[in-house]
């Protein structure tokens, strides 16, 4: 499904950056399999499937479309399609008892569209309510009994800046659904409906038991942590994410009580994002061969109080919750778990997606119509946190994003920009026994007047180090005007950039892990008295 979506998509955001996800669900809407795509999508997509199933009866040939964050979505640019799969059991090798008119499976995919309307190009700029962020789509049928619902498509395309690109990306999502339908039909034809359903149940049960086993191996106890977003872009106040993780008897209870109330800006997250972050972090505790199904959450209870930045209520603006608050939620969860299993938890990675949106009119004629509207979106890589056994990787997307950077060649061909610099930000990773990965530097020259949006975090406080490791360097944003004057920009802002100006984004480095040799030597030299020797159980002398 993912390959079909990527190959047939129109926008660089999906085709090149791979900002999409695909998954397969059973008749009850439980995840049976997912691609190694975007963690922030995959953990939250079950809410979209549940919303589509609750909204109406899905019949053969139907495809539901939605993006409403308060009805199964996450933020408005993420458009999700849900398709029911009805298997003709008469043609199965060993047909099982399947209820008539009941889908045996669902397939779903989610793709981030570069623009879905709203006040600012890219639909990710500063906002104070969701109505400013773009077109809001509750579950609707974009296909009904195999026929395109032209009215729904026309309504959607009339509310975006780049309708041709949006239509192409939506067609790619439909193709991905059809691919999933064909492959599932082939599997049932080969093995029989009863056997496929039985193995689906086995996958769910096995995943749940593997998670219970992993939790039983962790020390019983209560582990707490908190971390902060820089601000919401409206007020200059940090926003707290607090978590309390209780582990015992093969179960975990994750409670976000004490997190900041939902805010005026757009970094509010809906409950599906909090659940997605928990799903991702605890899945990372397992070996890679454990199936990624809904069973992983069976032994885990998630509490995200209503009206907080991890479970905001309408009409809150939420564009940044999916990208920034999700990252900080992961940072907070890992910080708490580092107290339980310090030998397994890395220092904080960059903790932001460094979101950039561009929009305007393209004056060129060699790559498309003159003065045609354009809209662009990307996330930008940074430093990975150092691990207990090795350095963090540099210039990489981490945690809730699993995307790529747009290649320079594609960026310059499709949009009126020139990449002036694209380099590793040397020395930005935190020091320690193992060094945090370095961020990157991206300098973009605008060839036409351009509306620019930035949605970034970790600009005031760098990613934390663990076990004595130093923090990574915070990120920086600036713009250089035509006279060569550089002006610092806040993490969350929008501006109208003149042709010829240059935007510079410096992303955070990851935190370091453990004290370096120099730090340990300094600590040892600073002692007023050497510690007395003692002997261990076999009589070896040690300090």
Topology:
Blueprint: H1 2-8, H2 12-15, E1 20-26, E2 31-34, H3 39-42, H4 45-55, E3 63-66, E4 78-85, E5 105-112, E6 140-144, E7 147-148, H5 150-157, H6 163-191, H7 193-217, E8 221-229, E9 239-248, E10 251-255, H8 271-284, E11 300-303, H9 321-337, E12 355-362, E13 372-378, H10 408-414, E14 417-425, E15 439-446, E16 450-455, E17 476-480, E18 486-489, E19 492-497, E20 502-506, H11 517-525, E21 534-535, E22 541-542
Parallel strand pairs: 10-11
Antiparallel strand pairs: 1-2, 1-5, 3-4, 3-6, 4-5, 6-7, 8-9, 9-10, 12-13, 12-16, 14-15, 15-20, 16-19, 17-18, 17-20, 21-22
Helix pairs in contact: 1-6, 6-7, 8-9
Write up what this structure looks like.
This protein is α+β, with helices and mostly antiparallel strands and 543 residues long. It folds into 2 domains: 2-208, no CATH class; 347-543, no CATH class. Helices cover 25% and strands 24% of the residues. The chain has 11 helices and 22 strands. The protein has helices spanning 2-8, 12-15, 39-42, 45-55, 150-157, 163-191, 193-217, 271-284, 321-337, 408-414, 517-525; strands spanning 20-26, 31-34, 63-66, 78-85, 105-112, 140-144, 147-148, 221-229, 239-248, 251-255, 300-303, 355-362, 372-378, 417-425, 439-446, 450-455, 476-480, 486-489, 492-497, 502-506, 534-535, 541-542. The strands form 5 sheets. The chain has a 7-stranded antiparallel beta sheet with strand order 2-1-5-4-3-6-7, with helices on both faces. Helix 1 (2-8) packs antiparallel against helix 6 and helix 8 packs across helix 9 (321-337). The chain is globular, with a radius of gyration of 24 Å. It starts with a helix and ends with a strand. Mean pLDDT is 92; it is low at 91-99 and 532-543.
